[in-house]
Amino acid sequence: MNIHEYQAKKILQQYGIRIPKGGVAYTPNEAKRIAAKASRSGPWVLKAQIQSGARQKGYFLEKSAGPRGGIRLIKSRRDILRNAEQMLGSTLVTIQTGPEGKPVSRLYVEEFSKIARIFYAGIAIDRVNSALVLLVASIKNESITNIAFNHPDKILKINLDIEGDTKPEQVKQVMDFLKLPPKSARSLEILINGLHRAFIDYDASMIEINPVGVLKNGELVAVDAKISFDDNALFRHPEIAALRDDCEVSERELQAAKYKFDYREFNGSIGCIVNGDGLALAVMDMLRVKNLDTACFLNVKGGVDKDKIASGIKIIMTNPRVEGILINILGGFLRCNLIADGIIAAASEVGLNVPLVVRFEGTNKEDAREILDKSKLPIILADTMEEAVAKLAEAMEEVD
Amino acid sequence: MSIFVNKHSKVLCQGITGTQATFHIRRSLDYGTPVVGGVTPGKGGEIHLGLPVFNTVKEAKKETGANASVMYVPAPYVKSAVKEAVEAELDLVVCIADGVPVKDMLEINHMLSGSKTKFIGPNTPGIITPGEARLGIFPENIHTPGSIGIVSRSSTLTYEAVIETAEAGFGQSTVLGLGDDMLIGVDFVETLKRFHEDDATKAIIVLGRLGGTFEEVGAEFYKSLENKKPVIAFVAGNAIPFGHKMGYAGDVITKGYISTQDKKDIMQDAGMIVVDNINDISIELAKLA
Q1: A204-232 confidence digits (pLDDT tens)
Q2: Same structural domain, B113 and B176
Q3: Residue A126 and residue A133: Cα distance in Å, rounded?
C-alpha cells in the first residue's frame, strides 16, 4: 500500500528528519492560508497529492488547469490562489498514471527550499540476499531509475541490520560516497537512522527520499518522500491502513481486494481468471504469442467459496475492455467444481456476451466439466493451456 | 531416492488441528506420508487424525523423533512457529501460508542462517516425493514416481510442469515449490545442488518468473557445476510491460531492471534448455529419453 507524499513526510518528521514547512490543502483558500504560514514572502511550491512519481513533468487533462505540471513553483502570493484553483479537482497525467490520469483532491503547500545540491536516499529489500539495503546516489539530471538501469555502480548499496541503528561507519561511508561537507554529518546520521527505523517500525517495503536537499548550512531536508507498506503487515498498523486512499485504486480493484483476490489491469482485451500469479504470467505470455493482449487478470488464489468466485468472475465480465475470457484453473487447494458453480452463478446474473474458454485441471475437474456441460451455457472447454488459448483466439476471430 | 523428503522422513504438522491442516494431512496420510504427529499449543495430549498432538515442537520431536515439519499456521504466527522448529533443530520446515509479512521473513531467514533447518516457502504448494511423502497441498493424483526433479517459483505452474512430464512418459523424483513471495527460504541453488546429488533424478525442470533475481543466481550456480544434469527451464512474464506496477519496485533499484528475456538469456548461457512455451517442456523431455 502506498500513501501520499505529505503523509510520508509526516512519518519521517517523527524521526527528526527535516521537511520543508507546509501543510495539506483541500481548497484554494486553505492553500493560501497555509502558504502564508509556511513562508512570509515565498516562493512556495504547490504539489499535487497523487500517488505517482514524475509529477512535475506531468500534465493536466483539463485545459482550465493551465499548461504547467503537477508541481508548481509559485513566486507571488496572488498566484497561489489561481494555481490552486486550477490544480484542485483536475486530473493529472504522468508517465506512471497511464493516460487516464489521477484526480487531484488535495495539494501540499510548502515553502520553497533553497538547496545547494540534491541526492537520492532510500531503503529497499534485496530479495536474493534477504536483506535490507540502504541505497544512496548523487542526482543531477538523471532519474534514479535511469541511474539504476544505466550506471548501477553509481548507487551505493549498504546492507542494514534488521535491529538497532545504522552503524556509525556506515553513515561515514555515505558521507564519503556523497562527498558531503562535515557540517552535514549530524543531519545525515539523523536522516539515515530515521529511514532505517521508520522502515522497521512501520513494516515498510520501500522508503525513498527523492531527493534529499542539502541546504546552505549543510542541513539536509526531505524535498519529496515516498513510503510503500507491506500489505501483509498492515494488520499490525491500523493507523497506516486507515490512510488508504480509495481514489488511487479502480473500482474493480477495490471489489477484488474485498474478496482478497489479486486483480490487475492492462491495456488489452482478454480477461483472465487463474489461480496463481505465475500461471497468470504464463497465460499472458501465451496470449501475446497469438496477438492477444490481456485486459485484466484475476487471481482467485485458493480456498474460496462459490459466492466469492462468482463475485470475482463478475468483476471480469463487467470490465468494458474485456472481449473474451479465459479461465485456467489448476486445482490443488482450490476445487474446480467451485469455480464451475461460480461461473454459472455469475453468468446467470450479468449474462455472458463474449467468448469464454475454460480449462480445468486437478481436484474435482470431472465434476466441474459436468457442471458446465449441464448448464447449456456457450462455454468452450479445453484440456491444456495451449489449447485453451488457441480456442479463445479462434472464437475471437469468429466474433470479428 | 529423492530430495528433502521421502518415506523414511518423520513428519510433524504444526497447526494440525486447523481446518486446512486437517483436510490436507488426512490426504497426505492416505497418500502414505510418514506423518508422526502434530503440534497445536494448548491441545497437547489430544489425538487428531489418529496422531498424537503436542504443545511444542520440542516435545513432539522428543516423543516421535520427527525431523521435518509442514506448517499450516496462519501468516501472523509463522515466525514463532519457525522459531520453534529451528530451536528443535528440525531438518526441514515447509510453510504453506501466504501473506507472511516481509519483516518476519527477514527475521526468519536471519534465524535460519547458521541453523541446520531448511525452510521451504512461504506461499508454496509444498513438496512431494511421489509415492512416498506429500508435505503441502499438491493435487497428489497427477504425480507418479520417476526421474524428473521439478522446482518452481510459482505454485500452479508446478502442476502444469508435472502434467508435462506425464505427457512425455516420465514421473517425478521430487517436486517442490519455492514459493511466490517477495522473500523465500530454500532457493534454486540449494535445490539444484540436491537434485544433482540425488541418483534418482536424471533431469530437472526449473520454472522461474519475472521479479527478483533468483533464477540468475541459480543459473550462475548451474554454470559452475562440472557434471551437469540436463535442465529444462521456463520463465513466465514476457508479456508484462516495463514499468507496470506488477512486481516489486525495489527490484529495479537494487538490481537494475531485469526482463524475462534477460533471465532466459542468462539461463541459456549457463547451459539450460530454455523453452518459450510451458507446454513445450514435454517436447524437450521426449528428446532426453
Answers
A1: 999 999 999 999 999 999 999 999 999 99
A2: no
A3: 6
